[in-house]
Design a protein that fits this description.
Length: 177
């Protein structure tokens, strides 16, 4: 990976922060999957979420096939951070930036795995579980679906995820090899 070339490309995008990471730094926790199952309304609704992504062990093995990755963060200011809909509406722009960064990483990698935010929202009605995903190249499983403690990774790389006020922070992880 020519990081200097990639960083020059990243400088053209509206990223808040980014960090090159090693997958050995990742902390996996079954607790994250438990929260998916018990607290997320998107659980069992798309191919990007559990249980479609596979067991925690299968997810971990999928991630650990890669040694390195790029963590990106975007921020958006909203009028009221407590307004869930307004907060969620900022996600589409983050997903588009994730898609652009993943495309840049793919230019230099044999294989990538992109993990992003929440459930997939490409289709009005997801095919899960009755038919294959319509757009597997555009479907990014959620980081949390793979049991990764994303805040731990952000802390390790001094990425400030507790921005003050009405700031929404989203993370994605693009693993490559
Ligand atoms: S691309 Fe469509 S079919 Fe695939 S996970 Fe997303 S919503 Fe479901």
């Amino acid at each position: 990976m020519d990081k200097a070339r990639l960083e020059a490309q990243l400088a053209q995008l509206p990223l808040y922060q980014y960090a090159f990471i090693r997958t050995e730094e990742l902390v996996f926790s079954d607790r994250v999957r438990y929260i998916c199952e018990t607290e997320c309304p998107m659980y069992n609704t798309t191919w990007a979420c559990p249980p479609a992504v596979g067991s925690p062990q299968a997810c971990r093995e999928r991630v650990e096939r890669f040694d390195e990755g790029l963590m990106i963060a975007t921020i958006t200011e909203v009028s009221d951070i407590a307004n869930i809909q307004e907060t969620l509406d900022t996600r589409a722009a983050h997903e588009e930036i994730t898609r652009q960064v993943a495309a840049l990483v793919k230019q230099q990698a044999d294989e990538t795995l992109t993990l992003s935010t929440e459930a997939c929202a490409h289709c009005e009605h997801c095919t899960w579980p009755h038919a294959p995903c319509r757009f597997p190249e555009r479907m990014f499983p959620c980081v949390e679906s793979h049991c990764i403690l994303v805040t731990d990774l952000a802390e390790k790389h001094n990425i400030d995820f507790l921005a003050a006020g009405n700031i929404v922070t989203w993370f994605s992880l693009i693993l490559y090899r």
